[in-house]
Amino acid sequence: MPLGLALGVGGLVAIAMLRGPVELDPDSPEGTVQEYLVALDEQRWDDAVAVIHPDWLGACDSADLASFTPEGFTAELGHEGAFGGGVTGMGEVIVDEGGEPLPEPDTFVDVTITHGGQGGLGSNWSEFVTFNLVDDGEFWWLVNDPWPYFVWNCRG
User: Fold this and answer.
1) If DSSP codes are grouped into helix, strand and coil, which group holds residue 101?
2) CB of 94 within 8 A of CB of 67?
3) In whole angstroms, what is the distance from residue 77 CA to residue 128 CA?
4) Rounded to a whole number, what is the distance in angstroms from the first to the last CA of the chain?
5) pLDDT at residue 116 is higher than 90
6) Where in the chain does DSSP place strands (E)?
7) What is the pTM of this model?
8) Strand, coil or helix: what is 156?
């Protein structure tokens, strides 16, 4: 490979590595999912819980989320899995403690979550997750039991 080409390729790799993650529009469904996942990664449990619809959160709180969140993960929009990981509740009405129907999803955001290290054989694995969101006109909320699926543990 000519030296100029090698330097050019090396420069592109360096620029890509310096660029960092893409910041999505925080007022979009994808931006809400990104906000949630970044808060989880940075262990800002209260910020992560703040984007889960209060009716779906039920009796859960940030301590419940902290106890279920795995360490060392990365996330990327989209996935090539044959199925989403989220429970959509399609065809059934889920109600809160008072018997009122909980908000049903308006849209879905597919994400690939990768756990573990960045190399070596068998050092990481991926899962395909579908986040469900509802729009209240001012904010996109996560609904159902968002990854890492902790709400089932503290819901009455």
Assistant:
1) strand
2) no
3) 10
4) 64
5) no
6) 73-77, 107-116, 124-135, 140-143
7) 0.73
8) coil
